[in-house]
Design goal:
The chain contains 15 helices and eleven strands. By secondary structure, it is an alpha/beta fold. Strands 1, 2, 3, 4, 5, 6, 7, 8, 9, 10 and 11 form an eleven-stranded mixed sheet that branches. α2 links the parallel β2 and β3. α6 crosses α7 and α7 packs parallel to α15. The protein is globular, with a radius of gyration of 20 Å.
């Protein structure tokens, strides 16, 4: 989330955790009894320094973090190294890729303390407890308010709007085979138009000039005209596949802060994403990993996430900062898809999408 997904948040987070690598002097992720526990994650992991320090003091464990690229890349690497894992806990596999991780035996069973506090809508794998839901967010098209105002054009609101001639050559999205938001956008279109209709939609989207790039950072911070990074890079696409939580990041990290968010969300293009964490199979420090997972679903961490990783908590009663909900409210009616259906169709859909869009 994904969340999880803002370069500004990543920049903040980089100074708050220690990057780890395999083969460190304390034995990588730590042998049994080690007081070091290693978290493997996608690049957007971030946490407040004080929150992490409190956990380390209370638990006696030192947390190291290994960031491994975009979510799709990180999951694939974790699967390839599962017999000799890089760490103890993996954070950041979402509902679009969950079945791939589970089918490949990436995680071992562990039911976290406080599991009952997780909202029922986000629970999954309750019979085996291989993964724990940590956060949720919405993948949506964002738009550059200033660009649309200057061009006297109403921003799009729905999937259908994006294929209208008025929005030709305006949208940039991510590669569905390499990027989590890119895959989420593909699944959103499949949920909207069905198994037999999504390819026809993408043909129209392609004819309307959609641009595809490898990952979120390139799309949002280089191609998108509405982001702070995109302005510096002279991006010329006023529509981008990003997150409903992107607008508050543009406000919170701006200096000076604008009165309103410079970007908006096309709420009729959203797909609900849920991110999970799990204890890696063959983790060297399983006890430390269990303590870390307990921490991730605790109220302190859950309430710390919104302004660090720009995602919503999944714990019942966890509070979200007012500025977060003001500028990045959750979509009221996002597209969703059952994990079983994602598992059944994802690989074939991505293959078909690649042939259709990247040919």
């Amino acid at each position: 989330m994904g969340i999880t997904k803002q370069v500004t948040a990543v920049a903040v987070g980089l100074g708050l955790v220690t990057l780890a690598a395999c083969g460190s002097e304390d034995g990588g992720s730590g042998s049994t009894g080690s007081k070091t526990v290693t978290l493997v994650s996608h690049d957007s992991w971030a946490v407040s320094k004080s929150v992490l320090a409190a956990f380390e003091k209370q638990s006696g464990y030192t947390v190291k973090v290994l960031k491994d690229g975009d979510a799709g890349q990180a999951v694939n690497k974790a699967i390839l190294t599962k017999d000799n894992p890089q760490g103890d806990v993996f954070f950041g596999v979402d509902n679009t890729l969950l079945s791939r991780a589970l089918d490949n035996g990436l995680f071992q069973s562990y039911e976290v303390k406080g599991a009952d506090a997780i909202l029922p809508a986000y629970r999954t794998d309750d019979d085996k407890h291989r993964v724990t839901p940590i956060d949720t967010g919405d993948i949506c098209v964002n738009y550059d308010k200033a660009w649309f105002s200057e061009h006297k054009l109403t921003p799009p609101e729905t999937f259908d709007d994006l294929i209208k001639p008025a929005y030709k050559d305006l949208l940039v999205t991510e590669n569905a085979s390499t990027s989590s938001p890119g895959l989420g956008f593909l699944l959103g279109s499949a949920a909207k138009y069905g198994d037999d209709g999504w390819q026809g939609y993408w043909k129209k989207l392609q004819a309307n000039g959609v641009k595809v790039v490898d990952g979120w950072e390139q799309a949002y911070n280089e191609e998108f005209s509405g982001s702070a990074g995109g302005k510096k890079a002279k991006g010329d696409r006023p529509l981008v596949v990003s997150y409903a939580s992107s607008p508050p990041a543009e406000v919170i990290f701006a200096d000076p802060k604008p009165a309103t968010a410079p970007t908006g969300v096309a709420t009729g293009t959203c797909f609900r994403q849920v991110e999970y964490a799990g204890l890696l199979s063959n983790a060297r420090n399983s006890e430390g990993g269990k303590a870390l997972l307990d921490f991730l679903v605790g109220k302190t961490f859950q309430e710390d996430m919104p302004l660090n990783m720009f995602v919503y908590p999944v714990r019942e009663g966890a509070q979200v900062p007012a500025e977060f909900t003001e500028y990045g409210p959750q979509a009221k009616d996002p597209e969703t898809m059952a994990p079983a259906k994602i598992a059944e169709h994802r690989d074939q859909w991505v293959k078909s999408w690649t042939s259709l869009v990247l040919k």
